[in-house]
């Protein structure tokens, strides 16, 4: 596992260098499996990760937001790595923080087989969160090495509310719930890059990130295997909770399709329990 994580570190350092002096902000003429328009940078980031992880010890197959199908590497190895190579890439033109998200499954991509979750955040600094038992924050130093900073933990309750999805397409129950949090004094923190919005809640100690079912996206927007499950794993290991609005944990969900999406709510205990109460009526 450590060798695989070391190789993920190499990939994200290379992607961060691509971002730093980026010249070509154009889109390709293609779309990914979810129908998102692909930036040339999305494809380049996927190529960097694929090249490095193909050589990495222990990799059985790769699942990527930018690949239509699962890519078999070595049937005799044990880790299935599912990743979003550049989450929030549509914000690269406005220089917002974006990231890469990795879920490491044993033998088969399934939430119950999830053994580690890793994400990089390309912001003012390059930082990496590695979670096997506890989410650990690492920061790239002057020698291009990731130095450990601290373990991350969520408080019982936070102050931040990252409310995703097109508001005119929210259910009335969701609209009333989000308003109730703002009426309690929560502050809106939403950039449009889940990796950054969830990182902020994790580092600030708590709050709620929500991307609900909407009339235009009844199964939500965020992809289970390489966006939702890794963050649910991290948030629950940090002492928080996750749900699809009806269940006890996003990690109880199973999907056949590798690009399946799900409504998702991740945060501190207080906010998730409050949401589950509100959603009882849905
Ligand atoms: P919306 C980025 O494209 C992304 O996949 C997530 O990182 C982000 O949380 C979400 O989509 C934003 O979606 O509908 O709010 O623009």
UniProtKB/TrEMBL annotation:
GO terms for molecular function: fructose 1,6-bisphosphate 1-phosphatase activity; magnesium ion binding. The keyword Magnesium applies. Binds 2 magnesium ions per subunit. Pathway: Carbohydrate biosynthesis. Its cofactor is Mg(2+). It is found in: Cytoplasm. Signal peptide: none annotated. InterPro entries: FBPase_C_dom, FBPase_class-1, FBPase_N, FBPtase, SBPase. GO terms for biological process: fructose 1,6-bisphosphate metabolic process; fructose 6-phosphate metabolic process; fructose metabolic process; gluconeogenesis; sucrose biosynthetic process. The keyword Metal-binding applies. Keywords: Carbohydrate metabolism, Cytoplasm, Hydrolase, Magnesium, Metal-binding. Its EC number is 3.1.3.11. Mg(2+) 2 binds at residues 84, 87, 227. It catalyses: beta-D-fructose 1,6-bisphosphate + H2O = beta-D-fructose 6-phosphate + phosphate. Its main location: cytoplasm. Substrate binds at residues 87-90, 190, 221. One of its GO terms (cellular component) is cytosol. Mg(2+) 1 binds at residues 65, 84, 86. Pfam families: FBPase, FBPase_C. Homotetramer. Belongs to the FBPase class 1 family. This is Fructose-1,6-bisphosphatase class 1. It comes from Campylobacter ornithocola. The lineage of its organism: Bacteria, Pseudomonadati, Campylobacterota, Epsilonproteobacteria, Campylobacterales.
